[in-house]
Write a structure and sequence with these properties.
This protein has 201 residues and is of the alpha+beta class. It has a single domain, classed as C8orf32 fold (Roll), CATH 3.10.620. Helices cover 34% and strands 15% of the residues. It has seven helices and six strands; from the N terminus they run βαααααβββββαα. Strands 4-3-2-5 form a four-stranded antiparallel β-sheet. A two-stranded parallel sheet has the order 1-6. Helix 2 runs antiparallel to helix 5. The longest helix is centred in the first third of the chain and has 14 residues. It is globular and about 50 Å long. It starts with a strand and ends in a 5-residue tail after the last helix.
């Protein structure tokens, strides 16, 4: 997919967005130091950051947890969050290592049928000088989902089915969608959040 950038300035994809995307908080800094100690280049650091968000953070809808995490520090502390929360964490880790990262969204079926309705799904785009922009999805793998750090060919969590009304938005935003953050902050539990997520950009 040809990605469309909200901004042509890489600096806009390196900024903190308090309180959701911050990288000078204690746990984020500790994780960044750990990644840097194990990886010597940006490609490997980006891959490790992706795997941290994908594998070390449980997806609330999978575990049936009612906790809602929004801020990157809280996500890393509690080790859980939905797709949007994981994307906030990944962006914080990447930006904290001076690797440009943006926010992307897809419109997907909630439960696989048109009757179940639609909801936004959040993922990230990463910029590396040798490759340009590419998307990754830290949602978390399970039976039927195999998302990978792949530059040449996207390997995302969900195959988009336009014939069923799903949409793969190609824009790379500099900030998380305000409506998404609002519903995350205002929802009482994950069930409410699952049902009240925005459906469109």
């Amino acid at each position: 997919m040809k990605l469309q950038l909200e901004s042509n300035q890489l600096e806009d994809y390196l900024q903190e967005i308090p309180p959701v995307v911050q990288f000078y908080t204690p746990l984020i800094q500790k994780k960044i130091s750990e990644i840097k100690s194990r990886a010597s280049n940006d490609h490997d650091r980006a891959k490790m950051a992706f795997e941290t968000a994908r594998d070390e953070i449980a997806h609330n809808f999978d575990t049936k947890s009612d906790n809602i995490t929004v801020n990157a520090e809280d996500v890393l502390n509690r080790k859980e969050g939905i797709c949007f929360a994981k994307s906030h964490l990944l962006a914080s880790l990447l930006r904290g290592m001076e690797i440009p990262a943006g926010f992307c969204y897809q419109k997907v079926l909630k439960k696989g049928t048109v009757e179940s309705g639609y909801a936004l799904h959040g993922l990230n785009a990463i910029y590396l000088p040798e490759t340009g922009w590419f998307r990754v999805d830290p949602r978390g793998n399970k039976l039927g989902i195999d998302s990978q750090f792949s530059i040449e060919e996207e390997k995302l969590a969900y195959p988009i089915r336009p014939e069923l009304g799903e949409i793969d938005y190609n824009i790379v935003l500099t900030k998380p969608l305000a409506t998404v953050v609002h519903f995350m902050q205002e929802s009482r539990n994950c069930e409410q959040l699952f049902n009240s997520r925005p459906t469109d950009l």
